[in-house]
Write a structure and sequence with these properties.
This protein is mainly alpha-helical. 70% of the residues lie in helices and 0% in strands.
Length: 64
């Protein structure tokens, strides 16, 4: 499975199943990827989290 698909599935699980907040998700990701803020990925990741929250049907289908 590709890394992007794994991330999308993990974000979906974090939002819909575990119901984590944006800050909780970013804290977990920062612990896994320490250079997240330095590389500017934090902005992109926050956009992805928002996309998951705004497109429930698209992301929930991963768990159907």
């Amino acid at each position: 499975m590709g890394r992007m698909k794994e991330l999308a599935m993990w974000l979906s699980e974090s939002v819909y199943i575990r119901q984590l907040s944006n800050d909780e998700i970013m804290t977990i990701l920062a612990s896994r990827y320490p250079d997240i803020q330095k590389d500017g990925l934090d902005i992109w990741l926050r956009e992805q989290i928002q996309a998951v929250r705004e497109n429930p049907k698209l992301y929930q289908s991963m768990f159907d």
